[in-house]
Inverse folding.
């Protein structure tokens, strides 16, 4: 997603949600996973800070991500209906 598309499609009062998760294996040197949710035209976009095969997160992070997806889905639907 380009910066221009982010600026046009994500409302300033509703910035992209970012959820950071820690490593479940207790390793201090494991990189932190960043998850961003946004809107690009009529689609909800999920960006991960690294390549993944599995995603695991605590319930609170899952709820934050689910809420972000629902909010951005409404924005994407509006974009689709306007276009």
């Amino acid at each position: 997603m380009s910066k221009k598309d982010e600026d046009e499609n994500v409302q300033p009062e509703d910035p992209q949600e970012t959820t950071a998760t820690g490593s479940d294996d207790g390793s201090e040197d494991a990189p932190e996973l960043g998850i961003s949710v946004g809107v690009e035209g009529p689609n909800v976009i999920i960006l991960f800070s690294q390549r993944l095969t599995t995603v695991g997160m605590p319930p609170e992070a899952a709820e934050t991500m689910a809420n972000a997806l629902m909010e951005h889905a409404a924005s994407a639907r509006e974009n689709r209906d306007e276009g």
About this structure: The chain has two helices and three strands.
